[in-house]
Amino acid sequence: WHGLRLLAIDGSMADLPNAAAVREHFGVWRPAAGGECPKARLSQLFDVLNKVTIDALIAPKAEGERSLAEQHCHHLTETDLVLMDRGYPAFWLFAAIRAQQAHFCARMSLTEWSSVAEFVASGRQEHLLQLKPGYQARQACQQRHLSSEPLWVRLLRLEGDQAEPIVLVTSLLDTNRFPYAQLQDLYLYRWPVETDYRHIKNRLEVENWTGTTVSAI
Fold first, then answer.
1. Interatomic CA distance for residues 182 and 128, integer angstroms
2. How far apart are CA 70 and CA 74, in angstroms?
3. Fewer CB within 10 Å, N or C, the chain?
4. Dihedral (C-alpha) 132, 136, 138, 143: value to the nearest 10 degrees?
5. What pTM, to 2 d.p., does this model score?
6. What is residue 155's three-state secondary structure?
7. What is the C-alpha separation between 99 and 105, in angstroms, rounded?
């Protein structure tokens, strides 16, 4: 895809054996109905065109998906383009990806970012934006030894069957090399990482653990 390797970062939750050590290490899910269940958070960096997992992590459920995504960044190169769902966007995570000279394309929440809300209200199809970090974003960058310099990004508005538009943010700024028409379907390329989790859970039945210790998990 334009000489770039398309990678998706995505996570899932996994049921664990109900053993004391496992409960203590990974944490317990307390649903509104039913009993408590130990859970772990899974995360992977997935090559969506070749259907290969580049990096995989399993962690306590309390560790956030963005934190795990940052750990995947160490495997990125300048020829990578990272696709992310709307739970991932954060200035510091964008900075972590760009620190590896890699690119990103992520779906944005329509309510959490004022710049996105303004873009939607404008009715424009695309827009170049200088993304400036707020205080918390600068603190997050400082804690991770990342640059907090403003990032130039490109906002894309996609109209579909749903009532609200889909807004993507990407670091692919070159409109000649990456015209709007070609980027319209880019977000859909992340779907194989979803089907891979289905394969892992339903066909490989990874949740049928044979071990009941933290090391086994």
1. 17
2. 8
3. N
4. -150
5. 0.92
6. strand
7. 15
